[in-house]
Amino acid sequence: MRNKEKDAEQMASKRKHFLEKAYELFTTKNIESVSMTEIAKACGYGTMTLYRYFNTKPELVVSVATWIWGQAIIDNQARRPSRFFSTMTAAEIFDFYLEFFIELYRNQRDLLRFNQFFNIYIQAEHIGEEVIQPYRDIIEGLKPQFHVIYEKAEKDHTIRTDEPEEEMFSTTLHLMLAAVTRYAIGLVYIPENGFDAEKELEKLKEALILRYRTP
């Protein structure tokens, strides 16, 4: 008689192996050039085995994005100075939120390179909303943290609340993510004497803090 719990563990382990290997290949080669056959072979399985876990390549690509961003968000939560931000002002939490993106540049440049390839791929392949929704859901996992900023700001007035919360979240997310991604893939102007990427990213963070912090 089969052990259902053991079978489930083996399936979860195999699925994670596929995700990890696909992420590795997508990050080093770019997504378009990597086939399902190549991923399966790299994992030591036949292509049909991979298709039993992911029906299409777009489904696998979105699953990889959902998994790796989920891990990044969990890691960020683990570095919180206060579990529920209970002792922090809105301005302090806002600083922590913006620092998350710089931490990605410092420690997870592979993720940022993958994110660039991912954006290009889903646009080129015209991936449907139903397929991409799990990825959108995981990115929206940043919203509760951002809501805490806005909620606290309405009480301690250390961050402006005259701009709609959704607009403020979208602006800061896009500006910071776009910036760290460009630095990670090297799509930046390089002065003759070089530059300090982290210093420039810190200046962007400071500019956003200045834009939203109350006088």
Provide structural commentary:
The chain folds into two domains: 54 residues, Homeodomain-like (Arc Repressor Mutant, subunit A), CATH 1.10.10; 156 residues, Orthogonal Bundle (Tetracycline Repressor, domain 2), CATH 1.10.357. It is globular, with a radius of gyration of 20 Å. Helix 1 packs across helix 6 and helix 4 runs antiparallel to helix 6. With 215 residues, the chain is mostly helical. Helices cover 74% and strands 0% of the residues. 25% of the residues are buried.
Helix percent reads over 70%
- Examine the coordinates and then state which fold CATH places here, giving the name of the CATH topology of the largest domain: Tetracycline Repressor, domain 2
Radius of gyration: 20 Å
* Global morphology: globular
CATH architecture assignment of the largest domain:
Orthogonal Bundle
Q: Look at the structure and give the mean pLDDT.
A: 93
Order of helices and strands: HHHHHHHHHH
Largest sheet: none
Structural class: mainly alpha
The domain tally reads 2
Count of individual beta strands: 0
What is the number of helical segments per DSSP (H or I, 4+ residues)? 10
Distance between the termini: 69 Å
CATH class of the largest domain: Mainly Alpha
Beta-strand residue fraction: under 5%
Poorly predicted regions are none
Quick recap:
This protein is mainly alpha-helical and 215 residues long.
What keywords describe this structure?
mainly alpha; Tetracycline Repressor, domain 2; 215 residues; Arc Repressor Mutant, subunit A; single chain
